[in-house]
C-alpha cells in the first residue's frame, strides 16, 4: 500500500510561545494528522496547540546557498550591542 | 575531476563532524554515511515496534489496574518511538512503505532481545528494568549522534524512557518484597534475561562489522564493549538491592579497573538469534504481519474518506 502523505507537526507548548517543529507523521488527511499528532507528540502535556502542514508544501532554502544567504549578516557586527563600548558609568545601557 | 570533488566534499564533511556540527537532511553526505544511517535507524525503529509484542501479551493479565495502565502507557510510548525513528530515517530518502515491507518480509533486522519469550508477569518487571535499561544506556550515548534528526529523536526518546525502566523496577521491587514464590519468579526471570540483555550491545568491538567507521562518523558515540560495561556497572547495585543474583559466577567488582568483571557471552547463541533461529523469531513476525493485515481495512477506509473529501 502506498504511504499516506507526510505532515510536519508544530506544537505550541503554552500560550505566549511560538509553535515549534516537533516532528513528522503520515496521515490520510489533515484531521487525522492533527489527531495522530495529539497521540504521538503531546502524550505528556507538551502542548496546547497543534499545526500540521503537508511536508510537500514547505519550501526550504538550499544548504548549498548557505554562504550566499547568510554570509552578509556575519560581517555586520555593528548590529550587535556589544559592538559599542561605553564608559563603565553608563555601560548597563 | 569528479573524484577530486568528492574527495574535498568528504574532507569538509568529516571536518564538520569532528567539530561536532550536526549533519541535516539536505546537507551533502557520503553515500555510505546515508546507507549506514538508514540501516541503523530503521533497525532501531523496527526494534521499538517489535518490542511492543512481548509486552502486549501481558496487558490483559496485568495483576492490577494500576499495572495495566502503566504497561499500556509504556507500550504506547514504544509505538511513538518507532514513529520518531521511522521519520528520522525518511529524511534520508527511504520511504516508510519500504521499511515496513522489509520488516514484514523478514528482510530487515530488529533487536534480537525481542525474540526471547516473556513467560510470566515477572518478565514485565525485568524487561522494563533490564531491557529498557540497556536500551537507555545505548540511547543516551546516541543523543550526541552526528545526524540531526536522529539525535533529536533520541533526545525525545530518552525523556520518555526513564519511566519505562522505573515502572519495571517497581514491579521487580514488589516481587522482591513478596512471598518466596514471588522471589523465585523474579530470580528466574533475571536468570533468563540477563545474558540476552548483555547481548543487546552487540558483538565485541573487535568483531563488529560497522564499528570503526560508525565511530569516525559519530553515528555511534561509544563502543559496544564500552556501553556493555557501563550497563553492568550501573545495574549490579540495583540487582543487589533486590537481593537477587545474576547467573554469572564471574561477575565481581574489580578494584583495580574500577569496574565489574563479568563472564563471556555465548556468542553462538547470539549469532543464532541474529540469524533468525531464536525462540520467537517466527512468532514475532507472524504476529506483526497479522496486525498489519488486520489493519488494512482501516487504512483503506481512511484513504477512501480522504479522497471523498478532496
Ligand atoms: Fe523505546
Ligand atoms: Fe522503552
Can you give a write-up of this model?
The radius of gyration of chain A is 21 Å and the shape is elongated. By secondary structure, chain A is of the alpha+beta class. Chain A contains 2 helices and 3 strands; from the N terminus they run E-E-H-E-H. With 310 residues, chain B is mostly helical. Helices cover 67% and strands 2% of the residues of chain B. Chain B contains 12 helices and 2 strands. In chain B, helix 3 (65-90) runs antiparallel to helix 6 (148-176) and helix 5 runs antiparallel to helix 6. The radius of gyration of chain B is 21 Å and the shape is globular. The chains are: A alpha+beta (93), B mainly alpha (310). One fe (ii) ion binds next to helix 3 and helix 6 of chain B.
Q: CATH-wise, what's the superfamily of chain A? A: Phenylacetic acid degradation B
CATH architecture annotation of chain A: Roll
Tell the overall outline of chain B.
globular
Distance between the termini of chain B: 50 Å
Summary, kept brief:
The complex is a heterodimer of chains A (93) and B (310). Chain A is α+β, with helices and mostly antiparallel strands and 93 residues long.
List keywords for this structure.
heterodimer, A: 93 residues, alpha+beta, Ubiquitin-like (UB roll), three-stranded antiparallel beta sheet, 2 helices, elongated, B: 310 residues, mainly alpha, two-stranded antiparallel ribbon, 12 helices, 67% helix, binds fe (ii) ion
Amino acid at each position: 500500500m502506498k504511504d499516506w502523505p507526510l505532515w510536519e507537526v508544530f506544537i505550541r507548548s503554552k500560550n505566549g510561545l511560538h509553535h515549534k517543529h516537533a516532528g513528522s507523521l503520515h496521515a490520510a488527511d489533515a484531521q487525522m494528522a492533527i489527531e495522530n499528532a495529539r497521540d504521538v507528540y503531546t502524550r505528556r502535556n507538551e502542548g496546547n496547540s497543534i499545526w500540521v502542514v503537508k511536508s510537500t508544501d514547505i519550501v526550504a532554502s538550499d544548504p548549498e546557498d548557505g554562504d550566499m544567504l547568510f554570509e552578509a549578516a556575519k560581517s555586520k557586527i555593528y548590529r550587535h550591542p556589544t559592538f559599542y563600548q561605553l564608559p563603565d558609568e553608563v555601560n548597563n545601557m | 575531476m569528479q573524484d577530486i570533488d568528492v574527495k574535498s566534499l568528504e574532507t569538509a564533511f568529516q571536518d564538520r563532524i569532528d567539530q561536532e556540527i550536526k549533519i541535516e537532511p539536505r546537507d551533502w553526505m557520503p553515500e555510505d554515511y546515508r546507507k549506514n544511517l538508514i540501516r541503523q535507524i530503521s533497525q532501531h525503529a523496527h526494534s521499538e515496534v517489535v518490542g511492543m509484542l512481548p509486552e502486549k501479551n501481558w496487558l490483559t493479565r496485568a495483576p492490577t489496574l494500576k499495572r495495566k495502565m502503566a504497561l499500556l502507557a509504556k507500550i504506547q510510548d514504544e509505538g511513538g518511538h518507532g514513529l520518531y525513528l521511522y521519520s528520522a530515517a525518511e529524511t534520508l530518502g527511504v520511504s516508510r512503505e519500504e521499511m515496513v515491507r522489509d520488516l514484514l518480509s523478514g528482510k530487515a533486522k530488529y533487536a534480537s532481545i525481542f525474540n526471547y519469550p516473556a513467560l510470566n508477569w515477572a518478565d514485565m518487571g525485568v524487561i522494563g528494568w533490564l531491557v529498557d535499561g540497556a536500551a537507555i544506556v545505548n540511547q543516551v550515548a546516541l543523543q550526541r549522534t552526528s545526524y540531526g534528526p536522529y539525535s533529536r529523536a533520541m533526545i525525545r526518546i530518552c525523556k520518555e524512557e526513564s519511566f519505562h525502566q522505573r515502572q519495571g523496577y517497581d514491579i521487580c521491587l514488589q516481587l522482591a518484597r513478596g512471598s518466596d514464590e514471588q522471589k523465585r519468579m523474579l530470580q528466574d526471570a533475571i536468570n533468563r534475561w540477563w545474558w540476552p540483555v548483555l547481548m543487546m550491545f552487540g558483538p565485541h568491538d573487535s568483531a563488529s562489522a560497522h564499528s570503526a567507521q560508525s565511530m569516525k562518523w559519530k553515528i555511534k558515540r561509544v563502543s559496544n564493549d564500552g556501553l556493555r560495561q557501563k550497563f553492568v556497572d550501573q545495574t549490579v547495585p540495583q540487582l543487589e538491592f533486590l537481593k537477587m543474583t545474576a547467573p554469572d559466577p564471574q561477575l565481581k567488582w574489580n578494584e583495580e579497573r574500577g569496574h565489574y568483571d563479568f563472564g563471556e557471552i555465548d556468542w553462538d547463541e547470539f549469532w543464532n538469534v541474529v540469524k533468525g533461529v531464536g525462540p520467537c523469531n517466527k512468532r514475532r513476525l507472524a504476529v506483526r504481519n497479522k496486525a498489519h493485515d488486520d489493519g488494512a481495512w482501516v487504512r483503506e477506509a481512511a484513504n477512501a474518506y480522504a479522497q471523498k473529501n478532496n
